């Protein structure tokens, strides 16, 4: 029945060799033999599995060319039985597996013995690996081992019917030293570059310093070396700087400060006079502001914004750009001011700091003088974009529409309006501070003509486009385009804006053209906290008479809801030139976050101070409850989920000494005004009225942040906001006999600028934004402030992120920003999947 055997591969006997069951013939590993049987040429082969079992395999080809295969882990006879049954279609057929596989052939044993006798002669020439001294000898031995392993695995892959498979790497443990052998082709530069980009992307996103990555790669040697990343990061920086140039400019701090002493031994510090503040600034950071071209930024982003199944922009769309800014202390003595833009067409994405783009950064504080210098750097480009839009690289023309927001101080500075405490404080109308309580008046967003004290830094912006920041609004009641070290001061902001104003003006007037020759129009919007907006717009501060960024309301008229103020701008509180002269009040949007924060601050302060009229009684245990009012408030705060709230005792406990309390974050303040039971602490109707006042503001703020509002919703909001301000300053009503009929709540003078814009300007902006298919929550500065916080952690947190480079922090931060855009336009992945199997684990079928 058997004509002949043809040994294709003799294989070898492993150390854990197995035997046939009865005849006790040794079974080799990697053994292959060709046999002619049943008029078929079949190939029988044996291979040892990881668990020590033997895989018996029989393959053949039928007359019609069909390839067939049977295999068994039980025995050679079981594989032979399956083979016979498959070709005869008859059950019960038997065939000796030992004979079929030729395991009983004497020649097989003899050839193995001859091979065994030959091997020791070759082995005697090789030293044990542990005796090799030089690194080159060890590497040579390992490479030879790798080649043998690679050649043997090809047969294993074929035997297990794998296709399109190759051995990528192998990890060996030799005398407790781990050695990783790579088999795959490492010349795939594109794949290697994408992998490096992904690592850099993750490090940037998670603020992992170079030293941190070095230590991590020391623990996990399979990670890419840090110097590989440094080379690739440098390459990315060069690519992006060609696309989006970064330019340096100097903030002229000599005009802002006077040097009273210089350390002769170490020129790294400068001491400043007491007229500003006693601070020390590193010399290599003074005047080192930097800007990025907004036009080039837009041209770079256009392909990403116009691609995909659901693109952000379509041809002929107006690009709505929100201008903003914020200052931050980046160390004990240093401050930075950042000017940002974001693209409102991206909707909710603008709430993330990732989509806030820095265009200017400089050292200093928020002052009109520095903001003027900063805006002078960008105003020409902003004006060009405002007037003409820009053309992209596809020759498509895009129109630009600018909007502006920020905290009150920033908006007032930029718009040149008086401060919050001035008579004509409002950024949007001519309301006097004594009229803030009067909700019978009507104020429109036509601008502040009485509080204008400076030239607006964004002269093309009308009050319509200056939107209050809802975050700051909430806090006070309850992108990055420029970065520089220092505080928010008009002088340093002026220097920073001088670096970008030309490009901003160009975008404003002409738009820009992207790389596909598509032209895009630009529409700028501006926001920030009040201080930043006031600095940029050249408006007086919050405490000035004509404080408002949007109208000429006097601070004594903030209470008067009977007046009507429109968003036409502040003409009476203008004290400086606007740093963004193309911005009208229409495009300067209040920051809803700051609005909430500041109003909640007032509500809490009024409530706590009422309970502290007698500070000693406030902390005295009452016999009825065996607990003091202070402790009762802290326990109630914990019950509603505010765990960190605590009162801070005064230095001297007297009847007039007031307790202070821990600062709260925005979510905590919202939870307090929504859930805190005021009526448990202030009895009778007054307590219920104050509790309702808190809840009513909470619902006003929730409405303000809604995305899908209707005209009816906005009209109702306007009525409710005026009603709320009127209720806040509700006077005491008495009968003719002098009996109190209804107790008042608070004084008209307690009406703050943020309450004024809540009642008079926020509804006007909500209507304007509804027409523009925008919503107020997209103008929050929370993303800018979070980005500022990330930069502080990354570049001023005591890390070695800079790697010892001579570049300024401002330049490094803008390079960091450029890399984020590189990762975005190249769609760099941040995760890869890898399946891990342990060879000797039991596999469930």
UniProtKB/TrEMBL annotation:
Domain of life of the native organism: Eukaryota
Q: What is the lineage of its organism?
A: Eukaryota, Fungi, Fungi incertae sedis, Mucoromycota, Glomeromycotina
Query: Under which name does UniProt file this protein?
Result: Uncharacterized protein
